[in-house]
Amino acid sequence: MTTLNQGFSKPKDSSRDLKIIKLEDGLLNLRFLSRKRTRFEIEYGLEKGSSCNSFLFLPKHISKDNKAFLIHPPGVNFSDLIITSLQENLPEDTQNLSIIVGHINPNRILLLKNLLKHLSNIEIICSSPGEKILKELWNQQAPSTNSQANCNESLPMPTIHIIRKEEILEVGNNFVLQLIPTPTARWPGGLMAFEKNQGLLMSEKIFGAHICTENWAEANRISTEEERRHYFDCLMTPITSQIDCLIERLDELDINTIAPGHGPAIEISWRSLFNDYRQWGENNQNASIKVVLLFASAYGNTAAIADALANGISKTGVKVESLNCEFSSANELTQAIQEANAYLIGSPTLGGHAPTPIVSALGTLIAEGDRKNPVGVFGSYGWSGEALDLLEKKLTDGGYSFGFDPIKIKFSPDRVTLKTLEEIGTRFGRALIKKDRKNQRRVTTDISTSRSDPAILALGRIVGSLCILTTQKEVDLECLSGAMVASWVSQASFTPPGLSVAVAKDRAVESLLHVDDNFALNVLAAGKEKEPMKTFLKPFDPGSNRLLGLDLNSSPNNQPILKDALAWLECTVVKRMECGDHWVIYAEINHGKVLNKADLTAVHHRRSGAAY
Questions:
Q1: Can you name the CATH fold of 455-604?
Q2: Record: fold of 4-143+153-281
Q3: Could you read off the pLDDT of 153-206 as tens digits, one per residue?
Q4: pTM of this structure
Q5: Sheet order of strands, 16-24 included
């Protein structure tokens, strides 16, 4: 497959570009580039921008009757770019455009309406669930703080071609498209397109990564591993069983290249990516404690809340299973509820009510759930929040206890709110683990073998310096900060000077320690460690600022420094390695200073390697 840079088109917003890559005669990749984070969802948290991949199959002959095919159109923010691109690349007489849509949401519907104003004959190709979503949202007005966004112009719906099962389409220039419905709880209208002659799998949401890159394909698996892992953790973890089944089906295809909806294509190492997806999902599949997450999301806001909660819970090692109530059968709901140790249910408020599928799922939960298990209620609303009040009241009357206060968010959660939601999920997961351990102690009086194992006892004799890791990150006038006590710290390299620090997956600060993030390591002085340890070991409420009220200095890159520390080091994360229930972070040192040369380093002595 050859790739040729066809240059850039730039809209009024200089943060967005379009790069056109010629893959073959008659086949173009339209890569829409966002230079900075423009979306609120948790999967954009690495702040590396994004790219949306669309594909344009041109007609073989210039004729009014010939069709062009557009695969996976972008969102409405790229309307000007895609309209200009179609005008420049479609033959002048071509009026027929078939648009294959693998993910339907209000944002893409607005884009489709904009295209309708410029092309006289449009056909939409989507899956059967996709058609349902399309019809539900076509004339609905999404709640928004932006008055212009509410001007949802009424246009007649174009012709819809429904893909009910796998189907083959022959398009121009001898291309053959195999359309594969790929429904999941997160994307019930999922639809992949596989071009059989080139072996090109256009996978839409699955296998993506939010990276703004002009390159057609990744250089190697390592170059994008962190971004793809972050994307997986944020979106795929609650649907790992569905993803595993999907990969089994895709393994049967004669694939040469995977081109996801976001990020660079995967050419040489796509089988390695399949294996990574299987491996990353193993912990969630094998967990003994399970949370079932029931939701419906009209405009994506409630789904974004669900993603953040699920991500936080998953960090504790608790399994999360998501079910979209609009597309789940009664038997699926009943079985999932009966097998779960806790229940979360989320709903938007539409016209002052909860959607009918949520009301039905609520009835199933009250009838089939175990009242000893905790529940949680969450959702987004525009002008009112009656649906959430209904869920709370019905569950309270049904005898359920809540694992956290009901979460009611107006419109879309921002970055700070998403971080708080993650921490709420983590606290919820920890409480379930604590409850499970307590129940296990009731049924057995045996001493924990791990704590008495000679090797574990010996492991505890490895000592480390006592430090306080602090970090803060400012994005668009919003500041996210975090801190933790760190004792698993070691120098890792001389040139360049570097260190490693182990961070538990369920630490709130972990999400602020990705590649290129900065942090400070404050080394504590022996005999003076009690006060800072007391400050940072106390429990914090989700979303709390761990640094609030402290007298701090700042490093050259604005990282928090404790004035009473023995020494400090400002570091930049270079690599992350997954090690069981921890991430080992390798960081290079940018700056540092010894503040008190007379004191010695505080050291952490442990009796066992089974606990801090």
A1: Pnp Oxidase; Chain A (2.30.110)
A2: Metallo-beta-lactamase; Chain A (3.60.15)
A3: 678 899 999 999 999 999 878 899 999 999 999 999 999 999 999 999 999 999
A4: 0.92
A5: 4-9, 16-24, 27-34, 50-57, 67-71, 96-100, 121-127, 159-163
